[in-house]
Specification:
Elements (H helix, E strand, L loop, with lengths): L1 H5 L33 H14 L1 H10 L6 H9 L6 H8 L4 H12 L8 H11 L6 H25 L17 H5 L5 H20 L11 H7 L12 H13 L15 H19 L45 E10 L22 H4 L3 H4 L13 E7 L2 E5 L13 E4 L3 E7 L4 E6 L12 E6 L5 E6 L1 E5 L3 H15 L7
Antiparallel strand pairs: 1-2, 1-9, 2-3, 3-4, 4-7, 5-6, 6-9, 7-8
Helix pairs in contact: 2-3, 3-4, 4-6, 6-8, 8-10, 10-12
Amino acid sequence: LADNYTGGEDEDRVGVPIQCEPELFFVTPSPVVKQVGFYKKVLLQLAVKVFNLNPCYGVAFAVMSGLADNYTGAMKCLLRSPEVDRFVAGTFLADAFSVCHLIRFGVLDSLAFLHTSVIGALVLAFRAFRLPNDLEKVHRLVHSVAVVWWRKHRLLIKEGSADPTKSFRDAGGDLAGLGLLQYLASSDVLAQLMFSAIMLHWIVHCAPELPRGRTINLHQWLLLNTGIEEGGTDVPDFVQEQIYNRITNECLMELGCSPFGSLDLSTFLNRRRLIEDAEADAAAGTRPIEDVDEEEEIPSGSLGRLLIGEEDVTKSIVNLDAPPLHSMAAMDGWVQLLGGALPSHAKNHAADGMLGELTGAAAVSMGDRAFGAVPEAPGPPSEGHVWATIASIFFLIAVSPVPGSPQAAPHAVTDARRLHVLAKDPNTLRLTLGGLPMQGDLDLQQKILIGLLLPDGRWREISIDRLDLKAPSEEELDKWQSAIERTRSSSTCKV
């Protein structure tokens, strides 16, 4: 097996950078919003809210607003927040968009996979973000975990900093690190073993349609893994047996997934943990098992968030009926954008490039039909009717104010400090906004710079001479004028 460790780079067939560098294929983007150092805290809070609604828009917003220098850095900032939805993060990272591929490897490369076992590596990865419910996406994530794990350990051999024949085991006694590497021919084999382990965990612990107490025995699981090694050979039975015993004896929160979408996974796993704890108490004679209600609702955090270790990362929700960004807004409400100066996803098609990598049927879904009937909306988004918000230093435009809706995530953002009122007409309820340069700008043209967030995680910067909007009433018109003028002085920064 020595060839598996000492082979040159030309033997690698995986097709990703050796060091898993996250930004090799993307020029470092230049943010649309500048001079945000003082607002980084509120910017992160706003980015998390947008990300939880629509992760593609959230990551694009974090980079274009200057929260981080690149996409991977933005994702790491978001994952450090306890408020980020871990399930949304996992689903986004597993997507097929090119930017997701780079972010995925960048995030995984920052995790301490060295000297971990099969289960240990999976737990480490999916503690940072949750497994999605789509099996294709699960496989994509697991394959990336295997590739990064494999490259980190091969690098140890290449640098001569470890003995490849030495047996390494983790705290639970499972083969780990180089001790595991010597029994596997490639990262593809490791990926198949990891994916099989996750499916075993689902069968044993998470499939509600099967009776409780169900199981798959070791012999059956070994048969399922027959021939996954290169050349149609098998991974040694004792390596697989360790994985099987660990999974069948322990329900691991991080490995929970619902590939057929048949349950609220966080609630199910939390309830399972409560029942198992009660069973242990009953065995010790400290609590009758009959006291446990299997239908009892267990707090699991907002948006189906996962329990990380013993910490319940819950989020208090003050008003479920309020627009998602309302708690941070100095002003929000319906407006109509006039003149077609600002493009709308509701009118665009894949052919014009406004939807990024989305094509075909996906582009159709971005039209008015996808947005449906929005309560109290004065008209469809294709006619310029949008939900506008001023939060901190940002003027944000979304299609819908409905909480929990992906269309409530802003799809267009500009720096509100650069806006000023050119004209106001109370008769037509029209407000005309122009742009202002800021100190340090190389281009002193009075343009409005807008970041149009794309559904593939990127954004497009556009420049317009003015922005005309129509308010629903004269009172609202006055409020918008006042909010814009206050924000221009950077005095409005509601958190």
